[in-house]
UniProtKB/TrEMBL annotation:
It holds the Pfam family DEP. This is G protein-coupled receptor 155a. One of its GO terms (cellular component) is membrane. The lineage of its organism: Eukaryota, Metazoa, Chordata, Craniata, Vertebrata. Gene3D superfamilies: Rhodopsin 7-helix transmembrane proteins, Winged helix-like DNA-binding domain superfamily/Winged helix DNA-binding domain. Residues 543-567 are annotated as: Disordered.
Length: 810
């Protein structure tokens, strides 16, 4: 381990000598044009679908042509022409093992987390999502651009590896979906043998699988040559696949992200992580293990890099067809397909660029890593100061789990401070200063590794608080004590390496090993806690009901802000009479909600000023519940995202420990880990820095008042006319039906009642009858009704809000 430095950690062998300059194994000159070609055609398809040039019904026809004619012809042609004698079988089996590993990992994890009602079908679909790549439409053009001039034999692996999913793994996923259909109780109960037979029949009826089998048979019968009489026909169909498939992929993306809901975010994050992070790492690792007998070191390295690039290929659109067929998790699959496709592009380009650049001096690379760490730390520092200030001002830090969250924020802030200090201290000849700075940096950094697991554990224990005596003080001690212990052991037993400015290798192999242990324990703790937490909920959806504020904050943040109270309006006959809700009075009302029914003697008047009103007390309880919310969904998502970054860090450590020459792709992983470690504050800010009640609501309220004042000066008459027309339309055509659907008589005092409805009920009703297309339009429509005097809040203290506030018709 002597002489280890950043150059040896990234490019060089462990001996410390720089590797010789070698020619790149791929050509990147055509990669950017290939990416532009692929994503340009995808964009054309998206625009055609978005502008309805090609409607959804016609898009299905194009999809049928691609999947049932063009792709089978392409596979048949290439299976006939495939040269099996030129295949490196260890590479093939490496990809096979990697796909099987990811398939079963996703399957087992889904079975553990998801509830019994749908776990088998979700396990099957999610496993197919994580393993079936878009090999032909998107993968083949990119591989062709990279390797046609240097390794043209690599192109045939696309056709050899792709059937692994289609013929081996997909049938297992379909079998799980069929088992779920059988367990949910279809009218006719099928035997296990019949289920197995139906799955096999479905697989064999798939034109892609059928033509692969026919192609392999024809390969041996026709001696690797397509007969001349059918060659042109097969070529015509096969050549039509590329552009048509990419265009269809763009068509299928239209409107898919709108289907993404908060309940699908957890599954989506895990699936994209499995597809774009876990899959390429396992593919490369399997090649490193199974292809060790390769006599050419250069060819071995080229194959492992090719395996990494293959693993990054995004999910194929056909998975959305499977999800639609089984009517299961279509939102997750389609949204994941869109996001995965566009996230894969920069990963593929950066990976290929790093693999094709000439051998670089390690000093500029070390300096670049240091600058990235420094810059991201400064940005994250400002975000964390803001987030901590919001947490303190909202006074949420006094309760669990926010008391742990603010400790996480402090650890992230100290890590940023430590990295900024290290940037100035690393190149100075000050041993004591370097050790002190390193101690601050790594105690806080290890603490950021530990806290996600402890927060997830605290959420789990809070759900079982009737069974467990929860002690927050012990958790805080653990969150800081474990990092202090780990760094103390490292300082006492480790040997500092000279000539390194990278804090990640300041104590060499001992430090990397220590970091790996901390990361592994944290990942296990967080993963097990989140799994058990999910098992105790109803398939993520119960998280939406676990706290009142979670649904309010996440669902209505964009739309539920106060509007100015009602001012003079159309309904000028309305008499405003104040009374205590406990004092029944009989008030004639010419604009009553139900004109055909007489108002009972005990009905409350229009404006409630009583402090003992039951409805006002109910609203206050909701507000108190919002203030006391634990924000479990936000904490869960933060823990999940941070666990993904921990997984990347652990992969980086293991990559370095078990590879004498980590290679250039390791640099890409290093940059990602640097951004993940010192950019955690941006994640914290995104979830906790914009508190609804402290930041968003006052800001929007102020903005709305300014906009209203400006609007009244500029377009006051036009706005009044729009309000008048809206109210007239509603009173003429919709009020009676609305009253029947959502208005309920509620007790507001000991002997008085009133007919009210919730603002959230009216917002949903407006969308259901087509008066509003989304919550934002419903909020605008309701605000016009309030400003026009058609509705009002029971105390006149609130404008119209899509929340659990009580309103009545005037």
């Amino acid at each position: 381990m002597g002489g280890l430095s950043v150059n040896s950690s990234i490019f060089s062998s462990r001996g410390g000598s720089d590797a010789p300059s070698v020619p790149p194994c791929m050509s990147i000159d055509k990669l950017l044009p290939a990416l532009l070609e692929c994503f340009g055609i995808i964009l054309c398809g998206y625009v055609a679908g978005r502008t309805n040039i090609i409607p959804a019904t016609q898009a299905k026809g194009l999809g049928s042509f691609v999947s049932k004619f063009a792709l089978p012809a392409l596979l048949f042609k290439n299976m006939v022409l495939l040269d099996f004698g030129n295949v490196i079988w260890p590479f093939f089996f490496s990809i096979l093992v990697a796909k099987v590993t990811v398939f079963f990992f996703v399957c087992v994890l889904t079975l553990l987390v998801v509830n019994r009602e749908s776990r088998f079908s979700k396990a099957g679909l999610f496993s197919i999502f994580a393993t079936q790549s878009n090999d032909f439409a998107l993968g083949f053009p990119i591989v062709e651009a990279l390797y046609r001039n240097t390794h043209p034999e690599y192109l045939q692996y696309i056709y050899l590896v792709a059937p692994v999913s289609l013929m081996v793994l997909n049938p297992l996923g379909f079998a799980l979906c069929e088992v779920q259909k059988r367990r949910t109780g279809e009218p006719q109960q099928q035997s296990k043998l019949r289920v197995l037979g139906s799955v096999l029949l479905q697989v064999l009826k798939n034109p892609v699988v059928f033509m692969v089998v026919i192609g392999v048979i024809s390969h041996f019968l026709l001696s690797q040559k397509i007969p001349p009489f059918m060659e042109e026909f097969v070529d015509g169909l096969a050549n039509s696949f590329g552009g048509a498939a990419l265009f269809y992929l763009g068509l299928t993306m239209v409107g898919q992200l709108k289907k993404l809901t908060r309940s699908t975010v957890v599954a989506l994050i895990l699936l994209i992580t499995a597809k774009l992070l876990v899959m390429p790492l396992i593919c490369r690792g399997m090649v490193e293990v199974l292809d060790r007998g390769n006599r050419s070191t250069m060819n071995h390295t080229s194959l492992s890099n090719y395996a990494f690039l293959y693993g990054v290929f995004p999910t194929a659109p056909s998975v959305a067809i499977y999800a639609s067929h089984y009517n299961m998790e279509l939102e997750v699959v389609t949204s994941g397909m869109v996001m995965g496709t566009f996230l894969s592009a920069p990963i593929m380009y950066v990976s290929a660029w790093l693999l094709t650049i000439p051998w670089m001096d390690s000093d500029p690379l070390a300096s670049a890593l240091q600058h990235v760490s420094f810059n991201i730390s400064i940005i994250s520092l400002f975000a964390l100061v803001w987030s901590i200030a919001v947490m303190l001002l909202s006074r949420k830090f006094c309760r669990i789990p926010h008391i742990f969250t603010i400790n996480l924020f402090m650890a992230q802030l100290l890590a940023c401070v430590g990295m900024i200090a290290w940037n100035f201290m690393a190149e100075q000849d000050n041993f004591l200063g370097q050790v002190l700075t390193f101690t601050l940096l790594y105690i806080s950094l290890y603490s950021t590794y530990v806290w996600p697991g402890l927060i997830a554990l605290s959420l789990l224990l809070m759900r079982r608080r009737e069974e467990v005596n929860f002690r927050p003080g012990l958790t805080v001690i653990t969150g800081w004590g474990v990092p202090v212990l780990a760094v103390s052991v490292l300082l006492l037993t480790g040997e500092r390496l000279p000539d390194t400015i990278d804090s990640a290798f300041f104590y060499g192999k001992a430090q990397v090993t220590c970091t790996s242990v901390v990361l592994f324990v944290s990942i296990v703790l967080c993963g097990v806690s989140l799994t058990l937490l999910s098992r105790r909920t109803q398939d993520y959806h119960s998280l939406e009901h676990g706290s009142a504020s979670d649904s309010e904050e996440d669902t209505h943040t964009q739309s539920s802000e106060e509007q100015p109270s009602a001012v003079g309006s159309i309904n000028t006959d309305c008499q405003m009479c104040e009374c205590a809700c406990g004092r029944p009075q009989s008030v004639p009302d010419t604009a009553s909600v139900k004109e055909e029914t007489s108002i009972p003697t005990g009905q409350c008047s229009q404006q409630c000023t009583s402090t003992s009103c039951l409805l006002v007390e109910e609203e206050q309880k909701v507000a108190d519940g919002q203030n006391a919310d634990i924000q479990s969904t936000r904490h869960m998502l933060v823990c999940l995202l941070l666990t993904v970054s921990l997984l990347a860090n652990l992969s980086s450590c293991l990559w370095w420990l078990f590879n004498k020459d980590p290679g250039r792709l390791y640099l890409e992983l290093q940059f990602f880990c640097v951004v993940a470690n010192y950019g955690q504050g941006l994640i914290s800010f995104a979830f906790f820095g914009l508190d609804k009640h402290l930041i968003i609501s006052p800001f929007k309220k102020r903005l709305a008042s300014l906009w209203q004042g400006w609007g009244q000066e500029v377009t006051g008459s036009a706005a009044s006319e729009e309000i008048r027309l809206t109210c007239t339309q509603f009173l003429t055509y919709h009020k009676e039906q609305c009253v029947r659907d959502i208005v309920h008589k509620k007790r507001c005092g000991e002997r008085s009642t009133t007919e009210t409805f919730l603002g959230s009920d009216l917002a949903r009703w407006l969308q259901s009858v087509g008066l509003a297309s989304d919550p934002g339009e419903a909020l605008v429509y309701g605000s016009r009704l309030l400003e026009g005097g058609v509705i009002q809040h029971i105390t006149l203290e609130h404008g119209f809000q899509d929340e659990a506030l009580h309103y009545r018709f005037t």
